[in-house]
Write a structure and sequence with these properties.
Layout lengths: L12 H11 L3 E2 L11 H12 L12 H14 L7 H4 E4 L2 H12 L5 E6 L5 H7 L3 E6 L8 H7 L4 E7 L11 H11 L5 E5 L25 E6 H4 L8 E4 L2 H14 L5 H13 L3 H19 L6 E2 L7 E5 L8 H11 L2 E2 L1 E2 L13 E5 L4 H12 L2
Parallel strand pairs: 1-11, 3-4, 3-5, 5-6, 6-7
Antiparallel strand pairs: 2-8, 7-8, 9-10, 10-13, 12-13
Helix pairs in contact: 2-11, 3-11, 5-6, 5-10, 12-14
Bound molecules: pyridoxal-5'-phosphate (PLP).
């Protein structure tokens, strides 16, 4: 046996469920990717950039135009300090690579990093590969954050707390009172807050996305991660960016230059052109995804699934305890095999899954027809 750096780590649950879904020709609501294409105007911008010869390396930190557009937007949305494109923004090949660079750059051997479970699957292994120790606290049963437990787990080794808002898989939005509670707990420490905000432009009803960079008490030790894959419905493009104060950006870039050196050029040029010409584009993303959420929920109304509230991101959590007492992994496989619909078992996002929880995650970033068909199948159960 080769001495593995990640013993016990198998293929991710997304890979496993998508493969099973393909094998059974099921409707794949498991992995989080849209079924529809990016705006044709954005695709035209990519085409133009490639034909105009924008096909060589970008500067390490990213195309200046794109960083400029992003800084302008963030300053328009309001940040606790003025975002400077050169000092604070780094374009990366997707949020996953950004997160990896951040952990490698900021977590030293033996440092503890606090995660809230259910948590996105790349955090814990990336922290371990940096020599850090993931400390995984579970959200309370009602979806609130375990701030008392957080307080108790903070110690001199705590380097970072990771927040994900809007949340994958639970669709929760970290509200003002959550940020205030976190700020109070972290006052008088220099613990870094890493906020994974890849779904920042998908918030519904009265919910509002609040970036960590909008929180005055935290912004000077905050790192925010964004993804164009999510915002542009183009997960395969693998493009994202990191926003952080200068001293943290400098450290992150030191690592990032050896991870990828630079993100791909034509997509960066295209993103800058498209965003310049569509100053309110991001608002349309929430509108679209809210329609999808509502359509899927309405179509499941007569089912025996109980739908949990979804304030943001593009996932619907359903409680299936009225239908079956199977563990969620087994029930997800059963769904694929019997009715041909694929979901993600929520236990995969935990270190210690709650034993009695019977939750599945469905991605609703799909065409209306797909949502209607899958909901009709789910209503048969
Ligand atoms: C919470 C969260 N963070 C990060 C990512 C990765 O984003 P990217 O595709 O830009 O690497 C995802 C993708 O599903 C995600 O859900």
């Amino acid at each position: 046996m080769y001495p593995s750096k990640l013993p016990g780590q198998g293929a991710s649950i997304f890979t496993v469920m998508s493969a099973l879904s393909n094998h059974h020709k099921a409707i794949n609501l498991s992995q989080g990717f849209p079924e529809f294409n990016p705006d044709p105007a954005l695709v035209d911008c990519v085409d133009r950039a490639m034909r105009n010869g924008q096909n060589q390396y970008s500067p390490m930190a990213g195309q200046p135009n794109l960083r400029g557009v992003l800084a302008d937007r963030q300053n328009r949305w309001g940040r606790a300090f003025s975002i400077d494109p050169d000092k604070h923004i780094t374009i990366v090949p997707g949020a996953t690579a950004g997160l990896y660079s951040i952990f490698q750059a900021l977590v030293l051997s033996g440092d503890e990093v606090i995660l809230f479970d259910p948590s996105y699957d790349c955090y814990a292994p990336s922290i371990q590969l940096a020599g850090g120790v993931p400390v995984r606290l579970s959200l309370n049963a009602d979806g609130s954050y375990p701030f008392e437990s957080l307080k108790q787990h903070i110690n001199p080794k705590t380097k970072m707390v990771v927040v994900n808002t809007p949340h994958n898989p639970l669709g929760l939005v970290f509200g003002q009172s959550d940020w205030t509670a976190l700020s109070e707990i972290l006052a008088n420490t220099d613990i870094i807050v890493l906020s994974d905000e890849v779904y920042e432009h998908m918030v519904f009803d009265a919910a509002q996305h609040i970036s960590v960079l909008q929180v005055p008490a935290l912004a000077d030790r905050a790192v925010a991660v964004s993804s164009f894959g999510k915002t542009f419905h183009a997960t395969g493009w693998k493009l994202g960016y990191i926003t952080a104060p200068e001293y943290l950006t400098n450290e992150i870039r030191k690592v990032y230059q050896f991870l990828a050196f630079a993100a791909n050029t034509p997509m960066q040029i295209a993103a800058a052109d498209f965003l310049t010409n569509h100053p309110l584009y991001e608002q349309s993303v929430s509108v679209l995804m809210q329609q999808k959420r509502n359509r899927f929920a309405a179509a499941l109304k007569s089912s025996r699934f109980r739908l949990l509230p979804c304030e943001g991101a593009y996932f619907q959590i359903v409680d299936y305890s009225a239908i079956s007492d199977m563990q969620d992994q087994a029930f997800a496989v059963h769904l694929i095999e019997t009715i041909g619909v694929a979901a993600i078992p929520v236990s995969a996002f935990y270190q210690q899954p709650p034993q009695t929880q019977r939750w599945l995650r469905f991605c609703f970033a799909k065409n209306d027809d797909t949502l209607d068909k899958s909901a009709a199948l789910l209503c048969q159960l």
